[in-house]
Amino acid sequence: MAARTGRHLQRYNQDHRLVVGCIPYRYKINGKNGRPEPEDDLEVLVISSKKSEAMMFPKGGWEVDESVEEAASRESLEEAGVLGNVEMSVAEAREVCTQWWMKEALEILVDRLKSPTHKQEN
């Protein structure tokens, strides 16, 4: 997959460019009592920014010819494949991700992984 360039296909909502992203994650061990625990056993992938030393989740522009899922997948591949990455615990990610919406997305992920519905499905 070739990285896309330019903004001529970008989606906008009024004056704001729409972006998509992912929180790539994995469980690092089998977990306590045979079940992984999101707070202790979950690692997330964050990438470094080209513009600063900020760490963030892979994200980027959502283009008009893509579904939100396709755009998020493409951005994760482009961003995480091009920039350096670090696997870290949820607690570490909370500290290094400075943007509020990234922290909020991380909390939503952890809450979903803790939910009884998710545990029944796995």
Automatic annotation (TrEMBL):
Q: What is this protein called?
A: Nudix hydrolase domain-containing protein
* UniProt-listed SUPFAM superfamilies: Nudix
Instruction: Give all residue intervals belonging to the Nudix hydrolase domain.
Output: 15-122
A Pfam family per the record: NUDIX
Ranked from the top, the taxonomy reads:
Eukaryota, Viridiplantae, Streptophyta, Embryophyta, Tracheophyta
Print the keywords alphabetically. Hydrolase, Metal-binding
Q: Does the record carry Metal-binding as a key word?
A: yes
